[in-house]
Write a structure and sequence with these properties.
alpha/beta; D-Maltodextrin-Binding Protein, domain 2; 5-stranded mixed sheet; 11 helices; 13 strands
Length: about 280
């Protein structure tokens, strides 16, 4: 599923994400969406011995991680890593590697943490430790903007045609909880969107992050909007994305958790979210 989303996002072009980042400050977005208790008093962790954090990422998953035309690394994950280091007042290096080599590189001591949209899962937690999640990947409905607005529910979706990527967690969720909907499986994200544009489907149901990027881009031509809120059931849509670390680096995990919470309290996280995701998805 991640590979399908990656192909779709990459097909939109890095230039679009550089432009979106430049315009993001004027876009509308909510504050940190319930990931942290921003009113909680936080104890500063013991940072003795922390001089720099070596982050590992990849460079071909825009707008999360990518290279700008000048070759510099950029993206939401990259900026989150830099903001963590700024909050902790430590040095920061960010090195790009192939995604399939990141875990081995971390375990082999070639970096201290992975910030590359690596979602926490029971199997990965057998090998790695994770910070608190700093973004989630909920499922969302999208419908045409010129259609009658409604908040999808199992009852209201009855008789509606909902397109979804075949054999995905999103299809499984629809079949389990929306039995009255007519489900239209599609090959990939591109055909999913075509189904909505051509009115083959009344709604589409997919990854909210990917859909938010499409909605904010030129390709959507303002045709469509989110309908209803996010679906966050971890059994289907994961536990969220955190910074991955070696299990023995518990102190570093605590420091990163502290930095992320401070970023939320100070509004830094909301600024980064707005910069890269002008259409709120969480």
């Amino acid at each position: 599923m991640r590979r399908a989303a990656k192909r779709f996002l990459t097909s939109l072009g890095v230039g679009a994400f550089v432009l979106a980042a430049a315009l993001g400050a004027s876009a509308q977005s909510a504050d940190a969406p319930g990931l942290w208790d921003t009113g909680r008093h936080l104890e500063r962790p013991d940072l003795q011995g922390f001089r720099a954090i070596r982050f590992l990422t990849e460079d071909d998953y825009p707008p999360l991680n990518f290279r700008k035309p000048d070759g510099d690394l950029a993206g939401f994950n990259v900026d989150v890593a830099r903001a963590i280091c700024e909050e902790l007042v430590v040095g920061c290096t960010i090195q790009a590697r192939r995604f399939d080599t990141l875990i081995d590189s971390l375990l082999g001591g070639k970096g201290d943490a992975i910030v590359a949209s690596l979602a926490s899962s029971p199997s990965l937690r057998e090998t790695l430790d994770f910070s608190a999640p700093y973004y989630r990947t909920p499922a969302r409905f999208v419908g045409r903007a010129d259609a009658l607005a409604f908040d999808p529910s199992a009852d209201r979706a009855m008789g509606k045609t909902v397109a979804v990527v075949a054999h995905s967690a999103h299809e499984a969720y629809l079949r389990a909880f929306f039995p009255g909907a007519t489900i239209e499986p599609e090959t990939d994200f591109s055909t999913l969107i075509d189904a909505l544009k051509t009115r083959k489907a009344d709604l589409i149901f997919a990854d909210g992050l990917t859909l938010s990027i499409w909605l904010a881009g030129e390709d959507s031509a303002n045709c469509c909007v989110f309908r209803g809120g996010p679906y966050l059931e971890s059994k289907f849509f994961g536990e969220g994305v955190g910074v991955a670390l070696r299990k023995e680096d518990a102190n570093l995990r605590l420091a990163i958790d502290w930095a992320l919470a401070r970023m939320a309290q100070k509004g830094v996280y909301a600024e980064l979210l707005r910069k890269y995701f002008p259409v709120e998805f969480q």
